[in-house]
Design brief:
Blueprint (H helix, E strand, L loop, with lengths): L5 H11 L12 E4 L22 H22 L5 H17 L14 E4 L5 H11 L6 H5 L29 H20 L11 E6 H5 L1 H13 L4 E7 L2 E2 L2 E2 L8 H8 L2 E5 L6 H13 L4 E6 L21 H11 L11 H7 L2 H21 L1 H12 L20 E2 H15 L3 E5 L3 H4 L8 E2 L8 E3 L4 H14 L4 E7 L3 H14 L4 E5 L17 H6 L5 E3 L4 H13 L5 E5 L3 E2 L7 H6 L2 E4 L9 E5 L4 H11 L3 E5 L3 H5 L3 H7 L6 E4 L13 E3 L10 H7 L4 H11 L1
Parallel strand pairs: 2-3, 3-4, 4-8, 7-8, 10-12, 10-13, 11-12, 13-14, 14-16, 15-16, 19-20, 19-21, 21-22
Antiparallel strand pairs: 1-7, 5-6, 9-17, 18-20
Helix pairs in contact: 2-3, 2-4, 2-11, 2-12, 3-4, 3-10, 6-8, 6-17, 8-17, 13-14, 15-20, 17-18, 22-26
Length: 709
């Protein structure tokens, strides 16, 4: 969109201010739909203009959304007013007219979900939540936007504000989360709905911007959404042609609609998103009638109503300020004080009564479902509530030294298959590495467009999108245990999604195999070095590196038990023995004694090992004599959660301590006097040779310990 003068902009805005909707002047909406059969949707009620409310009141609702955002951002002197001002019409239609949700119970299972992928515009969502009746966002909360201890932070955070589904901010992340939410709905509907009782039936709405579409991960998620046929995913693309640097044509000129059509989406274009609410309604109705995921491109004016800053990057990420706010109020004929909500708007926007009625009707249907299909009810209810079946952990096997050694990725496959049978909400897959990651659950088929009830997810080579989609699944319902997998080295592609999982408390299981230089011949491009240290440094992440079968079972048990933090598993390619001293209970402590003097007893030295190097630590302790202790430390985070007394009983101060781990030694100085590892890149050679050449051996551990004694 070409830049306009302030005078031209003022004239354009004035022409829209306070105007009644004029159907004759409605902009053309283009909708390209294939001729294939359209699949009916059970709850696809038509979105229409309210019959009992005037168009003036509706436009007052839209402008209330705008000015609540303007006022909050001005008061905080920080924020992004442009998106809420431009997206207020579509936000109004989504929250007030299209969505089925109960503000008084934000956790109602069959609610429609909303994701603001363009999370910087969060005052749009906070305003909508306040107006539609969410107790979590009061008018005072809006006044406290972006302040200490506020429930209205600078980006939507599900762990702060009740009613926010997922944490968004990194652009592109939210639309992939939305794909995960829609995928979870399709899976549950395919698995539990009956011809006489469709108990799972909800939509996922999202708003994304130009930045989301620039980020590559959005393409990964969009590709999968079309492949999976996620017909209840409706994404609005806020086409305002502005980013932080200025007009998007300096870097972004592709035809986004053509791209999504190529993916296989149903695509429409609302040409006037500023005032043409009927076009937005019509687009939603057409989206609901089509079996494909839908992209609705809505062309808007960023900062709509601002005479001097709209259609510019000045309104993207800075407050309007007093003078421009006054001019905007005059331009839109807004006569209300800051944060004031007109009485008619407050009454009409409140969705509490409508939402409570919808939930009550669903609860009645769910009670009927329980009577007709008690077994399915129990499984679905487990997923809805997060109450796992009693004795689920008993499905995890135990191992003895007599059991043949295998790689921990093989042990991981055993655990995944055991848990898949024991836990109704256990679901996941790999980024095109299932035969190497060993992540297939053999008792299930593949989740696909026509087989949505199955539980193996084929993510393809899309690590970044995969991580965010898996987070969306995990946050859909408490009983989902969502896992995703790739080589540990490729966690670099998905680190942002893993960090958001840790930040937002998504209990996703990240299964990372080929965890060290033990990858061998593939060489340094595929050999993790700094990765263990980096995830140990990440707040809120459990970083597990199990050493054998028992520790792998223990790691998975703990990972599944988590409700508000993710777990990363570092698993080996190479074979490891099942050791005599390992246990699931020991893993729960984070670190424990596996050889030599027991916890609390005197010892001359300590050798700490993790994963594939634990057997080296045990051998070193045996060689050093009866007073040498070998400690397994599969999880630093769990160890740090233990009492000071327990930690001192395992790693007493003053005792010479050596750590051995095939990765960066960064961080080990907290526990060890000497650390054996690799602080440079690896090399291409058989694993055994690499261990010898890099000095990660039993002999090196013994030598280091003796040097300290």
């Amino acid at each position: 969109m070409a830049a306009m003068s302030a005078a031209s902009m003022a004239a354009l805005n004035t022409s829209f201010a306070g105007q009644r909707l004029n159907k004759a002047a409605a902009r053309k909406v283009s909708a390209k739909v294939t001729t294939r059969a359209v699949k009916p949707v059970t709850r696809a009620q038509a979105v229409a203009a309210p019959a009992d409310v005037s168009s003036e009141t509706v436009m007052d609702c839209v402008n209330t959304i705008r000015f609540l955002a303007i006022d909050a951002i001005n008061k905080s002197n920080s924020g992004h007013p442009g998106l809420p001002m431009g997206c207020a019409p579509m936000g109004y239609v989504i929250y007030r007219e299209a969505m089925t949700h109960n503000p008084k119970n934000y956790q109602w299972f069959n609610r429609d979900r909303f994701v603001l992928s363009a999370g910087h515009g969060c005052m749009l969502q906070y305003s909508l939540m306040h107006l539609t009746g969410y107790p979590s966002v009061s008018n005072d909360d809006l006044k406290n936007f972006r302040q200490w201890d506020s429930v209205t932070p600078g980006h939507p955070e599900n762990f702060i504000t009740n009613g926010i589904e997922v944490t968004t901010g990194p652009l592109g992340m939210g639309i992939c989360n939305a794909v995960g939410l829609a995928m979870a709905e399709k899976h549950l509907a395919g698995r539990f709905n009956k011809p006489d009782c469709e108990i799972v039936d909800h939509y996922t709405y999202a708003i994304m911007g130009d930045g989301c579409n620039m980020e590559g991960m959005s393409g990964e998620g969009a590709s999968l959404a079309a492949h999976w046929g996620l017909g209840k995913l409706i994404a609005f693309y806020d086409d305002n042609s502005i980013s932080i640097d200025g007009h998007t044509d300096i870097s972004f000129t592709e035809d986004v609609c053509a791209r999504y059509e190529a993916y296989g989406w149903h695509v429409q274009h609302v040409q006037d998103g500023n005032t043409d609410l009927d076009a937005i309604r019509d687009a939603i109705n057409k989206a609901k009638a089509d079996p494909r995921p839908s992209l609705i491109k809505v062309t808007t004016l960023i900062g709509y109503g601002s005479p001097n800053k709209s259609n510019s990057h000045d309104v993207h990420g800075a407050p309007l300020g007093a003078d421009e706010t006054k001019a905007t109020r005059e331009n839109l004929d807004w006569k209300y004080e800051p944060f004031e909500v007109p009485e008619a708007v407050s009454k009409y926007m409140d969705c509490s009564e409508k939402g409570e009625a919808a939930e009550a009707a669903w609860n009645k249907k769910f009670a009927e479902y329980k009577e007709k299909y008690p077994e399915d009810y129990e499984e679905l209810n487990s997923i809805i509530t997060g109450e796992l079946p009693s004795g689920w952990a008993d499905a995890l096997p135990e191992f003895t030294p007599e059991d043949a050694g295998v790689a921990t990725r093989i042990h991981s496959q055993t655990m995944l298959n055991a848990l898949g049978s024991a836990i109704p909400g256990f679901i996941g897959g790999s980024a095109d590495l299932a035969p190497s990651n060993m992540t297939l659950m053999k008792q299930f088929g593949d989740f696909q467009k026509d087989t949505p009830a199955e539980r193996n997810v084929r993510y393809g080579v899309r690590e970044h999108g995969m991580g965010a989609i898996a987070n969306g699944i995990a946050l859909h319902s408490p009983g989902f245990k969502s896992y995703c997998a790739t080589f540990f080295i490729f966690s670099d592609y998905m680190r942002s999604a893993m960090r958001i999982a840790a930040l937002s408390g998504a209990p996703t299981l990240f299964v990372m195999t080929h965890d060290s230089i033990g990858v061998g011949e593939d060489g340094p491009t595929h050999q993790p070095i700094e990765h263990l240290a980096s995830f140990r440094a990440m707040p809120g992440m459990l970083m597990m590196r199990p050493a054998d079968g028992n520790e792998t079972a223990g790691a998975y048990q703990i990972g599944v038990e988590q409700t508000d933090r993710p777990t990363t598993f570092a698993l080996s390619r190479q074979v490891v023995p099942n050791l005599a001293g390992t246990s699931r209970e020991g893993v729960r402590k984070g670190a424990y004694v596996v050889e030599g003097p027991a916890a609390g007893e005197d010892c001359d030295c300590i050798i700490i090992g993790t994963g594939t190097e634990l057997s080296l630590a045990v051998d070193a302790a045996k060689e050093l004599g009866a007073k040498a202790r070998a400690v397994s430390m599969p999880c630093w985070e769990l160890f740090e959660e233990q009492s000071d007394e327990y930690k001192a009983s395992i790693l007493p101060k003053g005792v010479p301590t050596v750590s051995i781990e095939a990765g960066s030694t960064f961080g080990w100085s907290k526990y060890a006097d000497i650390s054996i590892g690799r602080d440079d890149f690896g090399a291409s050679a058989p694993a055994g040779i690499l261990y010898k050449e890099f000095g990660i051996t039993t002999e090196a551990a013994v030598k280091a310990a003796k040097s300290l004694m």
